[in-house]
Request: fold
Amino acid sequence: MPELPEVETTARGLKPLIVNQSVIAVGIYRPKLRWEIPKHLATTLINQVIQSVERRAKYLLINFEGGTLVIHLGMSGSIRVVPTELPLKKHEHFELKLYNNTSLRLDDPRRFGAVLWQKKGETLSLFDSLGPEPLTDDFNANYLFQRSRGRTQNIKTFVMNSTVVVGVGNIYASESLFLAKISPKILAGKISLKRYQVLIQSIKSILSEAIDKGGTTLKDFSGVDDKPGYFAQKLSVYDRVDKPCLQCNGTIKKITQNQRTTYYCSKCQK
DNA sequence: AGTCGCGCCTGGCGGC
DNA sequence: TGCCGCCAGGCGCGAC
Reply:
């Protein structure tokens, strides 16, 4: 489900609720997510204080003195902070019980998410080949242009490649290409530096606005306070097949690329 | 190295 | 009402 704006929304929502709290118990109710949740967390985290909350790519990082709890929301994950006595929901697989009688709970029906532990001074291999954060200056037109030379992938698949840039998933890839007026079918290696300048600005502005709106809620996603994100109302093409284009008199089309659905306007995007 | 297709899961929806 | 096939916001892996 969640792309960068939804994970960022989760991280920002968590911060005031959990930083400086200590963990009094850990619940691992369904250990088999994408990978097995490390059993030792149930003892490792006891009495440890949460020092800070960050996001890298689509990973949520909860920092402790001895290391970092790394959480990925997969396709259907969401996190809430609730009173500890509240009954568990069907797909709440993991829980940090905090000193103030609240609990951080990971809800993930499809179980594509992950909860991992990264010891202080070590780096999990899943961070090894990640590209730059899209909202930093490292992500710029020259970089994308260089990285794309010789590539035969279509541009939509290319911007969703996390070794190229992190955080751009299926919704925001379609939306960014629409804003940039670039056809999702164009090969990444054939796009000019000038068009990459437009694309860079489009990705940055779409992601920034989505963060401002608290992310996109299609169905499951909600913030830590259980409130949905409001960017869904701003979507121009995603999930709008056969509906009128908001910029021209055409209609939105839907195609499959790399086993994912792409939405676009064939008149606006060339 | 780059690209492609598969598989991991559950739930909701449309069609019959 | 029920059953069935399809679809879904991600991503690592193996094969070429």
User: Anything to note?
Assistant: The first helix of chain A runs from residue 4 to 18. Residues 40 and 255 of chain A are 45 Å apart (CA to CA). Chain A has six helices and ten strands. Residues 1-3, 6, 34, 58, 72-76, 110, 112-113, 126, 160, 162, 169-172, 215-216, 218-221, 238, 260-261 of chain A lie near DNA strand C (CB under 10 Å from a C1').
